[in-house]
Amino acid sequence: MANRVLVTGGAGFIGSHVADRFVAEGWDVTILDDLSSGREENIPAAARFVRGDITTPEAAALVRDGKFDVMCHLAAQIDVRRSVLDPVYDATRNILGTLNLMEAVKASGHVTRTIFSSTGGALYGDFDPPPSAETLSKDPEAPYGIAKLSVEYYLAYYGRVHGLDTVALRYGNVYGPRQDPHGEAGVVAIFCNRVLDGRALTVFGDGRQTRDYVYAGDVAGANFAAATRDLPPRGRLDARAFNIGTGIETSVNTLAETLRDVSGATAPIDYAPARAGELARSALNTAKAREVLAWQPTVSLADGLKRTYEFFAVRRARVNA
Ligand SMILES: NC(=O)c1ccc[n+]([C@@H]2O[C@H](COP(=O)([O-])OP(=O)(O)OC[C@H]3O[C@@H](n4cnc5c(N)ncnc54)[C@H](O)[C@@H]3O)[C@@H](O)[C@H]2O)c1
């Protein structure tokens, strides 16, 4: 019988790529999503869809009784700014919602591994020059990162005290087809739509701030590797955490110029005042994922941006048709 995976948030941007990957590998895929930001059209045809909220008893019952082998947990409130405006809302979904599922995993006796979508970009702060390794001190700037770090402490606890098998994947700034302008790499979606509108690409500050942009298909590959590889012993906070990025610092200026190159656009780049609270530099050291998960990114920035731009162009043409 095929292995069974539950993908929470599988109607969303990254979750739908994760679901696609497991379907392609012949797994039996179930998606749990409340469609608060996800879309039904993102769900692969071969997957079973359960509409539900991870904070509810119904979601817990699905996890407890669903006979899943693996849970990839991506459902979350993903907007960093919203977490600043409403930390209670953020913590309810991102901490309490996850605990609701983890208690169900504990009761299920069937789920052998949980893979949690954490963040690298919003976890390490700005005190040490990049690339950041997993063991670096954590200084999240916003409640969003604090919630992700809290969950990682809980996962370590579930491993140590209850023997559950958990993994945290700390993503860089994930971009690709189906992405949302509110996510950590929202700038890519915003720039693509600006190019399609024939408007200028607005850069905040001098554009030299850097991020680690990783393609969504590569992130899906990291989830699959985390589900199927032998992993080191669990217990300490960072033991089962893996940075998932390229290790490359890309400035917003380079991002804008590369997008113009691959889209053939001539949109001007204009500059607006820097936004408060933005990290100056960010990139992830991914040596551990390469070594332990045998994972590495395969899609270059130019290629990934081209695919992403084409996705938005096709969606625009469909809407306008
Ligand atoms: N996009 C990035 O750059 C990035 C970086 C680091 C980590 N992450 C993490 O990856 C995961 C996926 O993010 P994404 O960018 O694909 O965002 P997304 O908003 O596209 O996906 C989140 C999905 O979860 C669903 N959801 C939200 N709250 C829910 C709830 N209470 N119950 C059930 N479903 C719920 C949404 O409908 C959506 O389909 C999140 O955990 C996010 O924190 C994303």
Summarize the structure.
This protein has ten helices and 13 strands. By secondary structure, the chain is an alpha/beta fold.
Descriptive notes:
The longest helix is centred in the first third of the chain and has 22 residues. Helix 5 links the parallel strand 5 and strand 6. Helix 1 crosses helix 7, helix 2 packs parallel to helix 4 and helix 4 runs parallel beside helix 5. The protein folds into two domains: 201 residues, Rossmann fold; 97 residues, UDP-galactose 4-epimerase, domain 1. It has ten helices and 13 strands. It has a seven-stranded parallel beta sheet, with helices on both faces. It has 321 residues and is an alpha/beta fold. The site of nicotinamide-adenine-dinucleotide has 32 residues, from helix 1, helix 4, strand 5 and strand 7. Nicotinamide-adenine-dinucleotide binds next to helix 1, helix 4, strand 5 and strand 7.
Provide the descriptors you would attach to this structure in a database record.
alpha/beta; Rossmann fold; seven-stranded parallel sheet; 10 helices; 13 strands; binds nicotinamide-adenine-dinucleotide
Write the layout of secondary structure elements.
Layout: E1 4-8, H1 13-24, E2 28-33, E3 48-51, H2 57-65, E4 70-73, H3 80-85, H4 87-108, E5 113-119, H5 143-162, E6 166-171, E7 173-175, H6 186-197, E8 201-204, E9 210-211, E10 213-215, H7 216-228, E11 241-244, E12 250-251, H8 252-263, E13 269-272, H9 287-292, H10 301-320
Parallel strand pairs: 1-2, 1-4, 2-3, 4-5, 5-6, 6-11, 7-10, 8-13
Antiparallel strand pairs: 9-12
Helix pairs in contact: 1-7, 2-4, 4-5, 6-8, 6-10, 8-10
Bound molecules: nicotinamide-adenine-dinucleotide (NAD).
